[in-house]
Amino acid sequence: MAKAATQSATMLEARDIVHRYGPVVALDHVSITAARGEFLTILGESGSGKTTMLRVISGLERPHSVGALLIGGEDVANLPAAQRNCTTVFQSYALFPHMSVEENVAYGLKIRGVPMDERRRRVDEALNLVRLHQKSARRIGQLSGGERQRVALARAIVTRPALLLLDEPLGALDERLRYDMQTELVELHKTLGMTFIYITHSQEEALTMSDRILLMRHGRVEQAGRPEELFDRPVSRFAASFMGFENLLPCRVEHKLAGGRVVVRVAGRVFHATTVVQDALSEGSDAVLAVRAERFAPADVASDALNLLPCRPTERFYRGKYVDQRAESDAGPLRFRVWDKANSFADFAAVRCSEADCVVVPQ
Amino acid sequence: MMRNLTQRLNLGDGRWALPCFIGVWSLLVIAPLVVLIVFSFFQTQYFMTVYKPSLYTWNDLFSSGRFEVTLRTLRIALTVTLIDLAIGFPFALWLAKGKTSRTVQAIALALLTIPFFIDLSSRIIVWRPILDEHGLINNFLLATHIASAPQHWLLYTEWPVHFVMVISNFPMMVLPIYMAINVIDDTLIAACQDLGGSPFRVLRDIILPLSLPGILGGIVFTLGSALAAWVEPSMLGGGFVDVLSNSISSAYSALRVPMVAALSTFVVVLLALLLLILTLAMRRFVRFGEVFRSMKS
């Protein structure tokens, strides 16, 4: 088993997973692969099927049907959770309340029959990694939320699994601690070289930590790719909105050009834009133009120039680092940000946006 | 958790609660018990209690062949408790964690509490026409030619006493264990499996230690009630199954109050001893402090 894990470049291969809870389809033909040492994030809202997917991988849930399920090259589709070479960090930590910190961390090794001295050494090592070695004799009830989180991590990595599954592990922490733990998790991932599969509903967490992100929706993979791809090149209206595109304007596709470029008309104005789903767009059909608030720039005159949308300023919200400006256009309400305080943006007549920052997605 | 709850409900710091409880409990329970113990050092002459301290009643208790009765009482009570534990724990486990629906659980719990609504004597007397020489079971056995003659051991022996005591005490054993297992977080079980724990390890390392308070509770309730059982031995034992409570009732009908007091004290002492042994034996496997502390966090 260990040998197969060290040889295989693909740590996880899940193909065509279907799972239902009664009439509800939780996973609708989902396929996921993770390369060795990769930090893969499964991103989605609650009910998107991301936690079900994690439970299917760990073996805590038996899927309705499986095309293939391999961990480190080994077929685990019919193995119970106990025999799979992966461990989970649970959202609620699930630490054993009747055991000490040390006993919790040692538990997986004890089950595997690791001799006492080696067990002690590896527990120390794991607790050192999460900087909790001074509290090894503590009871779980005596620990803070952040410390419990670390114990859960240590307990999961001490057996050196091929895959570490993390189910929204930072969800229960306060904001400051969550921020610190993000950095720590990334460092831990680097140190261990282990494959991490991380579940979250926070796009910010996904973007800062992952090598690759899988965006899930209604039990399907909506988009998969590097953080930059998800951030800048959404494939659908949902992906754009989930990844924080504030402006989703109705448009009509005029021409499709080579190299993923597309010409659209927004409220009569011509925009040159990009898309990663050119095949899904047909000339003359309705689509959506997605632009981030910070990528719009105010313009003084509403000329007929390309990528310019006339608008009237409405409310303005001071946010400290920037100003959140609202405006009304023929294409609907707009939101954009102005960073430069000195800039007199109060009397703008239009907004403009570069071709690279205008993304067209199907309706 | 408990502290948070107390604060939220604004129950104060509860400084008065413990003295209050000790006061009321001493007055209502401990004081009569002390009176009982004191009475056991008096004696009876011509159906009158003589209020002069002596060890006469205690001497009488141990010299009049009560040793055999004590042993029988202990044996029956322990057997019944063990059988109830052996059936009750798996049943409670199934009910609490066996993927049973809420409805099934509610129905099972309601069924378990039904005996509490019916008088003990009426519940037990119905077994007579069933187990009797000409009873339902013997009729059935004869009619189906399973047996060629009526089975006499079915009634007025130790068998029916054990059998019916197991039934009457079953809810006493199951309910505390069910409560304890029911509150064990399912993710703890998932975590154990996830770390490589077989079903046996889950049971031994997670469910058993965390449900120990419930198991202890079940044993205390069952053992206590079995040691003091009176209705089953007298109604189904037919005078052949003499237990301590029979001695108590016969001493009572002879108006020998000091003897009643001594016998009752004896039963209480026996129960306390048994529980002490049990706790010491269990301490070798589980640290109680941790289990009870873990319930707070």
UniProtKB/TrEMBL annotation, chain A:
Residues 12-243 form the ABC transporter domain. InterPro entries: AAA+_ATPase (IPR003593), ABC_SmlMolc_Importer (IPR050093), ABC_transporter-like_ATP-bd (IPR003439), ABC_transporter-like_CS (IPR017871), Mo/tungstate-bd_C_term_dom (IPR008995), P-loop_NTPase (IPR027417). SUPFAM superfamilies: MOP-like (SSF50331), P-loop containing nucleoside triphosphate hydrolases (SSF52540). GO terms for biological process: putrescine transport. Pfam families: ABC_tran (PF00005). GO terms for cellular component: plasma membrane; protein-containing complex. Keywords: ATP-binding, Nucleotide-binding, Transport. The keyword Nucleotide-binding applies. One of its GO terms (molecular function) is ATP binding. PROSITE patterns: ABC_TRANSPORTER_1, ABC_TRANSPORTER_2. This is ABC transporter ATP-binding protein. It comes from Acidisoma cellulosilyticum.
